[in-house]
Amino acid sequence: MSYKAEYIWIDGTSPTAKLRSKTKILADGAEPPVWGFDGSSTNQAEGHASDRVLKPVASYPDPIRGGDDILVLCEVYNTDDTPHTSNTRALLRPVAEKFAAQEPVFGIEQEYTFFEGSRPLGFPEGGFPAPQGGYYCGVGVDEIHGRDIVEAHLENCLKAGLGISGINAEVMPGQWEFQVGPLSPLEVADQLWVARWLLYRTAEDFGVAATLDPKPVKGDWNGAGAHTNFSTKAMREGYEAIITACESLGKDGKPLEHVKNYGVGVEDRLTGAHETAPWDQYSYGVSDRGASVRIPWQVERDKKGYIEDRRPNANVDPYVVTRLITDTCGTALAE
Ligand code: ADP
Ligand code: MN
Ligand code: MN
Ligand code: MN
Ligand code: MN
Predict the structure, then answer these.
(1) Are 99 and 330 in contact (CB under 8 A)?
(2) Most buried among 10, 15, 156, 260, by the most CB within 10 A?
């Protein structure tokens, strides 16, 4: 007997990395071993020295194939056993370890858009649907496009054992969101990448593409973000730590350092309109969806909880955003 392991990794496509995967047949009972691939086909190597290494770091039941089959998330290494430059998970590991005693956890809201051909799902041929207003958390065929895919994706995430915590229809037709977390930095980032892979793979069976494009339609249509909710043990226990975290994200140099690593095209989405703060101005506030960082109203009332960094783009690398926030807030909270 044998089983199938789908090895998943993040490639070197610039400016936004893509997911890749391939299948290995394993003998019953065998652990997924280190494997390799052709890095010259993924922007991770030159043709004359093309081998790159896949090191399994997490595995999940495969909800697509079922049975004993698994999904295997990997880190990409060079043949000299150093992490490849595209391997941002390797940079998160030491930061997560350094601040582990603070018990940082994240919940990431992944917004995305379905496309059928060149149009978002639900956009009429050669025109535009009714303006935004009724679509967010809507119901009915006039407002909802792709719910069957969204439900199938949710079911697949649950079967894979991912910590998905909810879904909702978004402000633009064909635009949706799922949330992963709260989980530790490495867990949330690993699981978000796997949930993205499952999104593309699930939609594939419906003949539909899903995109993390942060501004899929120009003009008066909402962009797609990846609001990143964050807390440490101290923040879950008291308000002073909440304010310390908010302030630390605004200290000299930090707003720009964060924003330029919050996904490609962040300036196009963080315009100050469509529930965003301008990308070059840092602000935080209670219930304020026009601020860079929002303190949810319950958190202000309870004087403890978490904060929401609203700036990351839908196409952000979760290994990067969790590293930056863990480091910036963690350093301030340790003082
Ligand atoms: P929004 O009102 O911004 O749309 P959502 O319900 O979509 O909020 O997402 C809130 C996210 O915050 C969820 O992913 C949830 O897991 C996460 N979250 C809840 N509590 C915490 C916490 N203490 N620390 C970090 N994240 C949290
Ligand atoms: Mn080959
Ligand atoms: Mn949300
Ligand atoms: Mn949203
Ligand atoms: Mn949000």
Answers:
(1) yes
(2) 10
The tokens for 262 are 């919050």
ipTM over 0.85: yes
CB 305 within 8 A of CB 252: no
pLDDT, one tens digit for every residue, the chain (335 residues):
899 999 999 999 999 999 999 999 999 999 999 999 999 999 999 888 899 999 999 999 999 999 999 999 999 999 999 999 999 999 999 999 999 999 999 999 999 999 999 999 999 988 899 888 889 999 999 999 999 999 999 999 999 999 999 999 999 999 999 999 999 999 999 999 999 999 999 999 999 999 999 999 988 899 999 999 999 999 999 999 999 999 999 999 999 999 999 999 999 899 888 888 899 999 999 999 899 999 999 999 999 999 999 999 999 999 999 999 999 999 999 99
The ligand 1 site (C-beta within 6 Å) comprises 105-107, 109, 165-166, 179, 181-182, 227, 229-231, 236, 305-306, 308
Pocket test for ligand 1, best of 102, 108, 179, 237 (most atoms within 8 A of CB): 179
Q: Can you tell me which atom of ligand 1 is nearest the CA of 168?
A: 7
Q: Looking up tokens 């690993």, which residue turns up?
A: 190
Do residues 40 and 47 make contact, with C-beta atoms less than 8 angstroms apart? Answer: yes
Centre of ligand 5 from the C-alpha of residue 64, in Å: 29
Strand pairing category for 284-286 and 293-295: parallel
Neighbouring C-alpha atoms within 13 Å toward the C-beta of 184? 13
Ligand nearest to the Cα of 179, by number? 1
Pairing of strands 175-183, 105-116: antiparallel
Q: What whole-number distance in Å separates Cα of residue 122 and Cα of residue 55?
A: 40
| β-strand pairing of 307-309 with 228-231 | antiparallel
Residue in 106, 108, 109, 326 to alter for ligand 1 test, most ligand atoms within 8 A of Cβ: 109
* Ligand at shortest distance from the CA of 176: 4
